[in-house]
Structures are given as C-alpha cells and as structure tokens.
Amino acid sequence: MPFAQVHHRAVHYQWADHGQPHTLVFINSLGTDLRIWDEVVQRLGTSVNMLRYDKRGHGLSEGTPASQLATGTMDAFTDDLIGLLDVLGIDRCIPVGLSVGGRIALVLADKQPERVERLILCDTAHIIGTLQSWDERIRAVQTLGLEQLSGQVMERWFTPDFGQHNASTVAIFRRMLMACAPADYIRCCEAVRDADLTEQARRIGHPTRCIVGTGDVATPPALVRQLADLITGADYHELEGSGHLPCVDNPARLTTLIADFLHD
C-alpha cells in the first residue's frame, strides 16, 4: 500500500505505470477517496498510465494536525498534488478532476501550465455554491458531524433513481464520507467557498473537455456549460441520467469520453 511524504504528511496513492505516452491523474471530489475511479481504471486497463491519490484527511491520507490547521485554500490542495507529482517524477500529465478535484486541476494548469498536457473536468465549475451555503455546511459539520449529514450529501451525489436501485453502493459511499477527517473536510469546503476561478479558467490554453451528468444538482449542467464557455476551445458533454459522480453511476460512458479525448 504506497504512501508518499508530501509536506510532512503521508499521502496515499496508487500509481500504474504502463509505459504509455499519456498519464492520467485522477483527482477526487469532496468527501470521497480514490476508490471512486475503480471502474474507470479497470476499463482503461493498460492503455494509459494512471495516478490516483487521496486528498489530505480523505481515504488513507494523513490529515492535518490540529496545531497546523488554517483556513483551507485551493492553492494548498493543489500544492499537495504538485508535491506528489514531484515525488513520483511525473513531469507531464492529464488531470481528470471531479468537483473540487476539477478545481484542483484548473489551479494546477494555471500554476504549472507546462506540466499539463490537456484537461478533463467532470461535474465542476469556476464557482460552486455560495458563501452562505458553504458556511451553513461548515457549521453543520461542526455541530452535527458528517454522519448526521451523510443522507443529505448522498442526495446531492446520486440521482433518486440510482439511489433506489443501488442502495448497497450508496451505503458504501456514505461510509466513505463518514471516514473523512472532519477538520480536513471543512478545510476543503473553505477552499471551494473562497476561490472564484473565473480568471484561471479564462487563462487556460490547454485542450479541455468538460463533462457533467444531466441529473447533477451539485454542479448542474448549466453551470458546467458556463465553465466550458470560459475556456477557449473547450468541448462540453452531458451524461444522460448521471448525477454528481459519473465515475460511479456511468463509468462506461465516462471512460469512453476520457479515452477518446486522449487521441483527439
């Protein structure tokens, strides 16, 4: 089980070097870990090199000590990824970011454009939510805890139809959410709340593919379309019936969109 020391914290990752010319770096959403990409990775097989990792305080990655806690920023979460890429010697990659992971991908492309070959942005946007909505969520985590909020979060991740027919899968993801370190979950909320990435999106010069589920209530299609319109030359695709986690509820179609983009 591989771990890397990044900024004095243990980061859990999975690195599959298949000797291919392209390297995908999968970046998870808030409250999830690298397992969300399992079915996509399985379908891609050995056709591309792939890196997955858990953000700080998520999955098996070490959280931030209480003595070092500060307001979360997109730069801090992006620097964690940059540090991991440095440790592994990955000089060039294609970030595949979901939700907050897509925002990390955007900041990476803006900070180190030479490191990014192209971008795949899933169910994400330059602005997600409002100051009030994020403050309310942070207060709820502080007072109620993630377990009490998990039902509401599942309703934002999955469509009612998926939840009705895949109760066991939803239960797995509820446990995944509850395993997060609350302090680092809050830091991630703060990072999303405080960062307007409109200008970063406008500066992107990389080939970019934006993807969204038509049933996503967290980052609705209209919002993801706005992001695509900000990025010069970006294309836009909707996954019919998918929610906020298409890698879970429609991995076959998402894998096709990823694989096709590698060769466009």
TrEMBL record:
Its EC number is 3.1.1.24. Transmembrane segments: none annotated. GO terms for biological process: beta-ketoadipate pathway. One of its GO terms (cellular component) is membrane. Keywords: Hydrolase. It comes from the Bacteria. InterPro entries: AB_hydrolase_1, AB_hydrolase_fold, AB_hydrolase_sf, PcaD/CatD. It is an enzyme of class 3 (hydrolase). GO terms for molecular function: 3-oxoadipate enol-lactonase activity. Pfam families: Abhydrolase_6. Residues 24-254 form the AB hydrolase-1 domain. This is 3-oxoadipate enol-lactonase. It comes from Fibrella aquatilis.
